[in-house]
Write the C-alpha cells for this entry.
Amino acid sequence: MSTIVSRAAETAHPESAAPTVRTSLRVNGQTHEVQADVRASLLDVLRNHLQLTGTKKGCDHGQCGACTVHRNGRRVNACLTLAVACDGDEITTIEGLGSPTCLHPMQAAFVSHDAYQCGYCTSGQIMSAVAVLQEPCGATDADVREAMSGNICRCGAYANILAAVQHVRREG
C-alpha cells in the first residue's frame, strides 16, 4: 500500500521550508542585518523586511523597471536580484535619494516638469534617470530615450520624463 502525500501536506512540514540566511545590507547609508529566505529578491527584502515601499513591484519579471534601485552605484532591477547576493553591498532606494524638504535635483525636475501621472513607475524612473547621469550617454533625446528604455510608464509621460532628465543633465 502506498501513501499519497498532497502538495499542501508537503509544504506544511518544516523540513521542506526554504532555508534562510543572515544577510547584511547597507541600505541608504544604514546597515541592516536581515534573516531572509535564500530565494528572496532584493525587492521583497526592501519592501517586506525593511518597509522601504518606495521601490515598486510592477511586473516582477525585470521588464518594467518600477523596481530600479542602485547597487554599488549601478542601477539594477531589484526584482531580479537575490538579496543574499547583495551581502555587504551599498543599496540606494528612492527613500535614500532625497527627502521631502531636500529633493534630489532629479526629483525636483520630475516635479517641475510634471514627469509623472499615476506615479507608480516614478521611483524607478527617477532611480534610472539618476544613474543615466553617471553612465556614458549621448546628449540627444534619442540617446536618453535609449538609456531609459528599461523603464516603462503605462500613462505615457515619456515626453515630460525626457524633459526632466535633460533639464538635470544641462544644469548638472
Notes: The two ends are 75 Å apart (CA to CA).
